[in-house]
Specification:
Layout (H helix, E strand, L loop, with lengths): L6 E8 L2 E8 L13 H17 L8 H19 L6 H8 L8 H22 L6 H11 L38 H13 L7 H15 L6 H15 L11 H6 L1 H14 L2 H38 L5 H13 L2 E3 H8 L3 H13 L3 E3 L8 E4 H8 L7
Antiparallel strand pairs: 1-2, 3-5, 4-5
Length: 388
């Protein structure tokens, strides 16, 4: 549905260049959204898929293992959209205080993303509302170190920014002047926290994401915070008990459509076209996560059977196998500490797993060796290959 522009333009100046900055109208859209027909079916399919994802805890022997890995996959993907080159393996090595295969700033940004999500979820579970204060806190954690650490972490911007182009005059989109950001974000906060407009939670999340990206309230990190906002909204509403839904892979694969639809909302007020894209992304993403969980459960069981078939040596090897399900890359000292085995027993067990083709030694060194659960890493790495 075309509603004409969803905001107004205001003059702004950057470096002597005159710009037209866009100030969005408050949500919800006017006239009201048309959620009938095919859109209603899309919504129902997305809700069903998210429900199945939320129930993945009944499938997994330990949901925390899947959550630990899935959060890190999202951190890699969301950061790749912003230009980092880190992989899952790089992040796991960094967390072990081992040297990753990419510049340290890249992997530090990914690690910050994990910390920012953890902070947001912990605050929500403590009863703190999803608010501008929490959004600023999350941003502060996200930009605590690395390249964005000088971009006013935890503070709404106090200067004009723009999207696209090396200079303001080349921008593809100019967000509101910094003087309008507090009011725009206050309006968004009221919308996020409202519960009297009859909008389904998934629809509210889709609208809030676009509004946040349009306001672009920070000097850096807007894309990552905007993607996190969707997951946090679903968790606060109780649609998800654990933060398992992430749209970064879908958005990266359909980046041109994503940006075109954001522009279409701002230019024509066509929120419905955006919601069709968003709800399909939610459905595809949730289905993919459930399928990945099924595959991991089957893979762990298959490898366990291989280990059990080795006879007397199986006991120690099974303990090492369980440790590698929790962390897909580990050193021998870490395996010893996590399993309670002696160093020789842990070394013998991991050699057995290597002989079975379950793990691979990564370094080629005689000392300080690292062992990777290769098939597990392969599942986690799907879609992250090739960087941004």
């Amino acid at each position: 549905m075309k509603r004409a522009k969803t905001g107004r333009f205001e003059a702004a100046t950057v470096g002597g260049e005159r710009l037209r900055a866009f100030i969005p109208d408050p949500l919800p859209p006017r006239p009201a959204l048309d959620l009938g027909g095919g859109r209603q079916r899309l919504l129902e399919s997305a809700v069903l898929a998210v429900g199945r994802l939320d129930g993945v805890s009944t499938l997994l022997p330990d949901t925390s293992l899947f959550l630990y890995s899935w959060v890190r996959k999202e951190a890699v993907l969301s950061s790749q959209i912003e230009g980092t080159q880190s992989s899952i393996s790089d992040l796991l090595l960094f967390e072990m205080q081992e040297a990753p295969g990419v510049p340290i700033d890249d992997v530090a940004e990914v690690s910050n993303y994990v910390a920012a999500l953890d902070h947001g979820i912990e605050r929500l579970r403590g009863g703190f509302p999803l608010s501008n204060r929490l959004i600023r806190e999350i941003h502060g954690v996200l930009l605590a170190q690395g390249r964005g650490s000088r971009a006013a972490p935890g503070q709404f911007r106090r200067s004009q920014n723009w999207v696209g182009g090396g200079r303001a005059s080349e921008a593809t989109f100019v967000p509101p002047p910094h003087s309008a950001v507090p009011d725009c974000m206050a309006s968004l906060e009221r919308f996020v926290q409202s519960d009297d407009d009859g909008l389904p939670v998934l629809v509210r999340a889709g609208l809030a994401h676009v509004q946040f990206e349009t306001i672009h309230p920070f000097l850096d990190g807007n894309g990552r915070v905007g993607r996190l906002l969707v997951t946090l909204l679903l968790c606060e509403a109780g649609i998800l008990r654990e933060p398992l839904l992430y749209l970064s892979l879908y958005l990266r694969r359909r980046r041109a459509d994503y940006y075109a639809l954001l522009d279409r909302v701002r230019r024509d007020g066509d929120w419905e076209a955006w919601l069709e894209f968003f709800l399909e992304g939610v459905r595809v993403t949730a289905v993919g996560a459930v399928e990945a969980a099924h595959r991991l459960v089957a893979m762990f069981a298959d490898d366990r059977r291989k280990i059990e078939a080795t006879g007397r040596r199986a006991g120690s090897a099974l303990r090492v196998h369980e440790a590698l399900q929790a962390r897909a890359i580990l050193s021998l000292p870490a395996l010893r500490d996590r399993t309670g085995l002696s160093f020789p027993a842990a070394a013998s067990a991991v050699e057995l797993l290597a002989d079975l083709g379950i793990v691979r030694e990564m370094t080629g060194r005689r000392r300080n060796r690292l062992f990777a659960y290769d098939r597990y890493l392969a599942v986690l790495s799907e879609g992250t290959e090739g960087g941004g």
